[in-house]
């Protein structure tokens, strides 16, 4: 059947898991949105199903093909099976598509829209590169760069249709929050307790921050999902085998280790906390949708290029803040990323939390209209129309 409005009806999304959960976290989220909110028939090709199963526990890492939450999840292995390419093809983060699949794309009657979904950055150059075409050197195919981002000149951010309404309902409902804490095996924290979630990479600054929380006048409850920072948490409290369910107390600081949960449930943790320490890319975006102050541990890259990325984000995020609040955030983020004495910057950060709360809410409102999945479909539709126009004009 001819596709009159030129919006894609099917999608193939390719994910090569490099390390951690960011690559699969983003592609799994996008797959579900395209399938469940936009009605596309979506195949997600993943080369590491064990990582995928951490985000989606009902998945079976031993299966080559399975349906999970409206998405066909396929093991990406070589030799790549012979399949009909989808109308929208997304390679995430520059992963190299199988040669046979690229050739099949070139052989289709209507060329698929081929997108390279890039990493998120607030750096200015992303606006200039967003949407640029890259013709294939030998085949009649063009790939387009699609940059997520924080401004209208970029592709926006992944945001589920009902996420903000669900967040508001959760944050306004003490009964739901109580039930959430109980599901973690904890009582609802007493009013006045500062609740912090802490998802991070190894970080030598951890001890300093823990010291500051232990010595603070306000009780601090810190929730640590299982992961790379856990050995250091154990070391701080003299426990050689920390695991989900472990709990510790020092001074006014209580730390509870949580299991790594499925992706949707991680949002609830962010909504339930007053401050969220996040890392990488996807958890950082989720912390922004939580509308609470956050501390970002950026994924470290060669030649320290991640510092430019961090500064570019701070420039946008901090622009309307008072000098005191702006300096407080910069101080803590720098220490947390530079593995300095993060504890030293904490009191200044804690002192401006009201202003940071307001900023977090404004920021999420500002970003919410720039939805990546919708932008991606609009972009694909435009390319489809442009091609149809060219063919007609021939
Ligand atoms: O896991 P990450 O460190 O991934 C990183 C980044 O994406 C980085 O940009 C990339 O270059 C590198 O991988 C290779 O952090 P990120 O991006 O926050 O991804 C974590 C995912 O895990 C996110 O989708 C949220 C999810 N998550 C859960 O589903 N359950 C949990 O309990 C927790 C803590 C996280």
From TrEMBL:
Pfam families from the xrefs? EarP (PF10093)
| Reactions it catalyzes | dTDP-beta-L-rhamnose + L-arginyl-[protein] = N(omega)-(alpha-L-rhamnosyl)-L-arginyl-[protein] + dTDP + H(+)
Keyword Transferase annotated: yes
Keywords, A to Z? Answer: Glycosyltransferase, Transferase
Q: What GO molecular function annotations does the UniProt record carry, in alphabetical order?
A: protein-arginine rhamnosyltransferase activity
Which InterPro entries does UniProt cross-reference here? EarP
Q: What does this protein do?
A: Protein-arginine rhamnosyltransferase that catalyzes the transfer of a single rhamnose to elongation factor P (EF-P) on 'Lys-32', a modification required for EF-P-dependent rescue of polyproline stalled ribosomes.
What the record says about family reads: Belongs to the glycosyltransferase 104 family.
Q: What is this protein called?
A: Protein-arginine rhamnosyltransferase
Q: What is the lineage of its organism?
A: Bacteria, Pseudomonadati, Pseudomonadota, Betaproteobacteria, Nitrosomonadales
